[in-house]
Amino acid sequence: MSPRESPLIGVTGRRFRLSLIAGADARYGDRCADSFMADFATRIAAAGGLPVHLSYDTDAAGVCEWLSAVVVTGGQDVHPAYWGGDTSVVRDIDPRADPMVHDAERDEYELALVRAALERRIPVLAVCRGLQVLNVALGGTLIADLPAGPVAHLSAEAAPTDGTADHVVTFAPGSTAASLFGGSARTNSWHHQAVDRCGAGLVVTGRASDGVVEAVELPGAPVLGVQWHPEWMAGSDPSFAWVVAEAARQLESQRERSCL
Q: Is 128 in the active site?
């Protein structure tokens, strides 16, 4: 696929102060940097897509006029105010000074981005936190903190890893996930929250053995949410080939419409 033929795929990230970077010049410490996990861009590019990093300042509806797909990445918990959770857990800490605390600005941007992508019917790959953002964007709720059980969802393993033997996800027959991964697949896992009630139209197509939701889809639309981190699987993960292929179809459709 030539660069001119390759689909633009937007990738979300996070924002923090430069003072958090070891060795950074203290004169600029109060300024912010936008950060993106490079593994997403690397794997999207390897699959034939053109990754585009999206700052919070990018107009969500406007950028979806240009993009052929959106990837919503992992990170901190979604602020409970957006899904009806217990807001007493929110600490009064600047998310620019600690990129792991709740970041309402990121939440607002990604919720708007998902809704704009769905409205334009461009493909969405939602990863870990991204799956939860997708669910909340459609009116769903979350489990605030998974209890300890037979499956370790908040793994102590370092990335990249293909996960542990206890973390096997079983997929619903006939689903997009099953077409990509087969009947089941071992995956990595770094989350302590999960889908509770599904948002409007979303269906669960993958679960761990303890019943925790690991994959969701929106029937009739190119939308896939995975609770693991495909960018940090030690082996290849077909999620990226899927989103690039769906984005290429979207791009072709966009070009055909522009010729009418």
A: yes
pTM for this predicted structure: 0.97
**How far apart are alpha carbons 144 and 175 in whole angstroms?**
27
Give the pLDDT confidence of 113-163 residue by residue, as tens digits. Answer: 999 999 999 999 999 999 999 999 999 999 999 999 999 999 999 999 999
**Whole-angstrom distance, CA of residue 109 vs CA of residue 55:** 9
Strand partners, 33: 16
The dihedral formed by the CA atoms of 225, 166, 145 and 190, expressed in degrees to the nearest 10: -60
Catalytic residue among 79, 102, 167, 229: 229
Helix (H, G, I), strand (E, B) or coil at 222: coil
Beta-carbon contacts of 31 under 8 Å, excluding residues fewer than 6 positions away, are 17, 18
User: CA nearest 112: which of 162, 62, 43?
Assistant: 62
Given this model, what pLDDT does residue 215 score? Answer: 99
The structural domains of the chain, ordered by start, are 8-258 (3.40.50.880)
pLDDT tens for each residue of 61-79: 999 999 999 999 999 999 9
According to DSSP, the residues that pair with 154 across neighbouring strands are 190
Distance, CA of 51 to CA of 244 (rounded, Å): 10
Burial code (b: 16+ CB inside 10 Å, e: under 16) for 162-199 equals bbbebbebbbbeebbbbebbeeebbbbbbbebbbbebb
Strand 14-17 with 32-35, pairing? antiparallel
Beta pairing partners, 51? 9
C-alpha 41/C-alpha 232 separation (Å) is: 12
Q: Please pick, among 79, 102, 110, 128, the residue that the annotation labels catalytic.
A: 128
